[in-house]
Structures are given as structure tokens and as C-alpha cells.
């Protein structure tokens, strides 16, 4: 049983993975968009937090493995990524009453 008052010592495997993810984020830092593997679609680059580490990700959540992402030149072509920037009213279902919060 571990003592909750003792500082937690990070596991070597976790530290190695965290270092790999930090390096991957640095590699993609200046990319205008990313592709998943050898895919044709260019996604919007985003950042998510994993175990206190900023991890590169894509805005539409189509892939969760940041090691599969590759930098891509050119504009974002993913329709889901492009749709994320719209306001709530732009996604309103036709005929549905708008709720003002």
C-alpha cells in the first residue's frame, strides 16, 4: 500500500512516453495542418492534455495517436475540423427553437 503523503515517483515508462510526446509536439509546432498517417485529408492541429503533458492532436478527434500525425502544407480540408470554429447558432437545426442562455 502506498502512503498518500509521499511524493509520487514517475514510472520510467511514463516518463519516456511523456518525453516522446513532448518531442512530437515540438516537431509539429510550426505545421499549418496535419495528416493522419498517409491520408489525404489535412486536419487542424490542436493540443490536448495527457497526464499533465501537452500532446499534439487534431481538432475533430478522428485519431488519438499523436505519433501517427505528420505535418502537412496547405489549408485544412477536414470538414469536421473546419466546422469546429463555427458558433452555436451556425449549427442550429432548422425549425428548432433557439435557446438564449
State the distance separating the first and last CA atoms. Answer: 48 Å
Quickly give the structural class.
alpha+beta
Strand content: 15-25%
What count of helical segments does DSSP give? 2
Shape: flat
Q: List unreliable stretches of 5+ residues.
A: none
Strand arrangement within the widest β-sheet reads: 1-4
Order of helices and strands: HEEEEH
What does the model show?
This protein has 101 residues and is of the alpha+beta class. 22% of the residues lie in helices and 20% in strands. The protein has two helices and four strands; from the N terminus they run αββββα. The chain has helices spanning 12-28, 79-83; strands spanning 33-36, 45-50, 53-58, 69-72. It has a two-stranded antiparallel sheet with strand order 1-4. β2 and β3 (53-58) form a beta hairpin. The longest helix is centred in the N-terminal third of the chain and has 17 residues, at 12-28. The mean pLDDT is 79. Residues 82-101 are annotated as: Disordered.
Keyword list:
101 residues; alpha+beta; two-stranded antiparallel ribbon; 2 helices; 22% helix; 20% strand; flat
Topology:
Layout (H helix, E strand, L loop, with lengths): L11 H17 L4 E4 L8 E6 L2 E6 L10 E4 L6 H5 L18
Antiparallel strand pairs: 1-4, 2-3
